[in-house]
Structure formats: C-alpha cells, structure tokens
Amino acid sequence: MKELVVISGKGGTGKTSLTASLAALAGDAVIADCDVDAADLHLLLSPKVLKVEEFRSGREAVIRPGDCIACDVCRDVCRYDAVRPVFENGRKAHYAVDAIACEGCGVCVRFCPEHAIDFPERVCGEYRIGETRFGPMVYAQLGIGAENSGKLVSTVRKEARAIADDGNARWILVDGPPGIACPVIASITGSSLALVVVEPTLSGIHDMERVLELTRHFALPTFVCINKWELNPQMTQEIEAAALAAGVSLAGRIGYDRAVTDAQIRGLTVVEHGGRAAEDIRAVWAALADAPGAPAAPATMEV
Amino acid sequence: MIIAIASGKGGTGKTTIATNLAMCLQKPVRLLDCDVEEPNCHIFLNPDLDGGERATLPVPVIDEGLCNNCGECGRICQFNAIVSLKTKPLVFPALCHGCGGCMRVCPTGAISEEGREIGTVETGTSGHIEFVQGRLDVGQAQSPPLIRAVKRHIAEEGVTIIDCPPGTSCPVIAALKGCDYAVLVTESTPFGLHDLKLAVATVRLLHLDFGVVINRATPHDVMVREYCKKERIPVLLEIPDDRRVAEAYSRGKLIVEAVPELRESFERLCCAIISRIQHRDAAPIPCAGTTPGVS
Lengths: 303, 295
Description:
By secondary structure, chain A is of the alpha/beta class. Chain A has helices spanning 15-26, 41-45, 73-77, 107-111, 149-167, 182-188, 202-217, 233-245, 259-266, 270-273, 276-289, and strands at residues 2-7, 29-33, 48-59, 62-63, 83-88, 91-97, 117-118, 121-132, 135-142, 171-175, 193-198, 222-227, 249-254. In chain A, the strands form three sheets. In chain A, strands 3-8-9-2-10-1-11-12-13 form a nine-stranded mixed beta sheet, with helices on both faces. Chain A has a two-stranded antiparallel ribbon with strand order 4-7. In chain A, strands 5-6 form a two-stranded antiparallel ribbon. In chain B, strand 10, helix 7 (190-205) and strand 11 (209-217) form a beta-alpha-beta unit.
C-alpha cells in the first residue's frame, strides 16, 4: 500500500479537484481529506456518512467565578494574554479565560492559590468516515479557531490507514492543506510520496520552492505538476526546470479548462465530467501510479 | 486602523486585495504580510528589505547540576515537550509552546529559557507603503508566535493592512485578533462558498465587522452573491474574471497598474472600508477615491 499526499504550499492551486480525480482513477483507494481547516473534497465525492466522531485534544482553563478571589496570579503567569478581569459594579470581581486565546498549557491551573480553575478536555472538531462512489473516505472539520490541527490530521490519516489495512487497498490518497507548517508536516510525515500542485505564477514558484524544501527535509519522494499551465507557458518551463534542479520528478501539466469549475458546480470530479483537463489528469495519474515510493508508514510527528 | 484581509480557502486573492488596497491608500499605510508560511506580498511590491530580525520562541534549558529528578517539569507540560521519568529531563524544543510552566514549577531553579529561532521578521518600504513580513523557517510547525511578532509592527497612525494566512484555525485567529475590520476574499464556486461560510463563522466568533470581496466574478455564478444577500453581508467589490488580471498576477504585477480601469474599483473599496470603520472610529482618515459609502 502506498500513501500519496497532494500538497501545494500556496492555496487554491487545484489540490482538491486533482485529488478527487485521482480517487476516481485509482479505483481502490482510501481517500483522506487532511485540509481540516477548510475541507472541500466531500463536496465532490458526496460520501454517505457511516460514522461521526468527536475530536478531543488538549485542555482549556475555565475559572469558577465563585471561587476566584481576583488575586491576579493567573493573569500574571499566562503568556498568551488569555486571562481577563471581569468587572462588576466598577470593581474587579473575578477573572475569566478567553477560550480562543487559551493554549491549554495549564500553568494558571497549577498556580491558582484557590484551586479555582478547572481544566477540562477540549472538543476541537469532529471527523467522519464515509463511503463514496470511489471508495471509503475519512474527512474532518476542525472547530472554528481551534488548536491542534496537526493532531486532527494525524487522526484522519490513522483512520484512513486502518481502513486501507483492513481492505487491502493499494492506495491512500491524501488531500493536503496549504502552507508548510503544523498541519502540512502532520500530513506528509511517513507517507510514500508527495505530489506538489503548482500554478505558473511568481507566487506559485516562490511557494513551491519552500514546500520542496520541506519534502526534502523529510526525505519524501516528490512529484510536481503544473496546473493551468497555459496561463503562463514561460513560467511553466521555469517551474519545471526549478523542480528538476531541486531533484524532484515531473508528473505533467494540466491545462486551463473551464470544465474544472463546471465539474465542481455539478459536484463531479473532472474525469467524470470530461474535457481537456481530464485527459491531462489521466496522464498525471499514469506517471504517479508506477512511481517508486516507500510503503506508507505511520506518522512520526504529532504537532 | 487595522484592516485584515482573510479567507477560508487558499488562493482566492487575499494577497491581490492586500497589495492593491495598500497602493490605493494615502500615506501613512503599512502592510504586514502575516501569511508567514508562504509570504507573497513582496513579489508584487518589490520592497527594499532590511536584513530582518530573527524571531524566537522561549524553550527550556536544563542545568543538570541543579536538577533533582523530581519530574515536576514533565508533569506540568501539556505538550510532551519535556519528559522526566525519574531522570534528568529530556527537552523536545519543536513541541514546546513556550508557556514557561516548567521553569515556574521547578523547585531547584534548574530550568532557564533560551530563544529558539522560528523565523524572520523583515521590514522595508515600497513607494509610500511601509512593509513588514514574517517568513517562517521551513520545518517549523508553529506559525502563531511569528505572526504575533509581525503584528508588533502595527502602526500607531494611519492604516495597517494585514494579509492573513488561509484557513480558520490558530494562525488565522492570531492574525485577525485586534483588527478593526476584516475583508473576506472568496470566489463564486462551491468550494469558495463553503469556505466563505467558515471564514464568516471565524470573524463572527471574534466579533469583527466584515465585508466580502468576490474575485474572478462572472455574471452567472451567483451563489456567493445570494448567500451574502441572505446573510446581509456587504459585498464590497467584485473583481471580474478577466484573463488580464490572471496574467498580471502570474507575472507579479499589481492589477491597479496592469488593468487601469480597476484602480477606481480599488479606490471605492478603500472608501467603503474606511467609512464603515469610521462609524465607530472618531479620527477621520483621508481616502483616495471619490465615491465613499459603497456597501
């Protein structure tokens, strides 16, 4: 079994549209949406939901107003500016914790002289397991403003891995998040290969260089494909040259095709909808399907 | 006056809006690129940047001579960044959130802190724009501390524009916190609408006033317009789906320069945002455009 993770550095380059089509072409893949901030893959794959699980991770400080003596200790030890006074009749009555700012470090809990601070587990979102027309799918929604997106990504990948092991699936296809930090690192560690989707723009090449540095950092075999390449053919060539110079492989070019948006509006993958881009995507899959790459290993880093 | 440019979905045009808006505002205007994982504003503004300052996060250092193996540090750490099983503690700096709990709880004073470098904050100027950006070191997991370091450069006077990272989680919250107004950039597609709803929930959670810009707008893709109407969210600007805009972007050009007729649209956007903030804010700020009050 191999695990392919689709990433981009820059957002909006076409990761989700491409991942959905690869799922259609792979036939027997387990599909995982690891863009847990803003998951969209389910809009194309319409999974029938089989299971919904709460995602609990970390804790949050909650001050019991009745027990708080407004002594300032919690405010003074908090490094996240999360503890605020609550005024009643013009005087400081007690303190309260801003749940959005609280990092869940527990320092105020430990140092409160009145033991007036509770420290319950925090529900940070949920994840779902479903069945799509192309195979099983795991996807998630992080709570708005929540922490621990990396741990939710690891949870989604672990669930997908278990399903793939059970069903002897040949592929796990992971739709990754944008960026290069916590959730991306959690998406790529221990996977078999990465596909970086790049658009032919100066921003695209700049962001690709940073994401390739990241996959090199984790010694992950990496492919690059250019989406909407005709937007700037010269830039496309420069990106391909830069990718080869960085020691990664090319997986092809995908043309600019209004059919990609039309497919999205119909809730279909591009290869189901058809069009020029669909043919290009088939070629990309052909390049990836035979690629060498280590078998999927469990994620090694939880952040 | 602090204006944040945000979106749930990536690649909708946050950087385009942030840079072109900054170009159309009168001085003093400062642009902070808080998309520290992939900062791109500099591509469009070509600022003269200084060498930058390294940003650090405090992490514990153990003086083993003073440590008595009590294990308190490991017990308080919620992030598994310091582990002590009746042994000298092991520190995993990459997992540390810099809360300082281990140092506070250590009974023998064996723990001090040193700064672990996580990225760079660079400053410079581009024409009349004062520019600041954060650049996270590749391989670093936590961007919020660097975002907060960039935000320490918010201007006392005039307008500060903040280009936010995509998403809805802690980096976005770090960027949006304390802003006066949020501009949510989206595109009129099912993904764009789905992620706009998440972005709206995010700014509402923070009690921020906000409006929407629809990028790559076409007459027939009406789903975002209809959603905004139903939710009574002002649509501040629609940027037409125009190949000239896409090509200018691909070459790192500002669209107010490449497509001159859009300059007036951006000037109206400046006025619309500023007049909305001034409903609450006393100090008037001159705006560049001619027709204020678009909503």
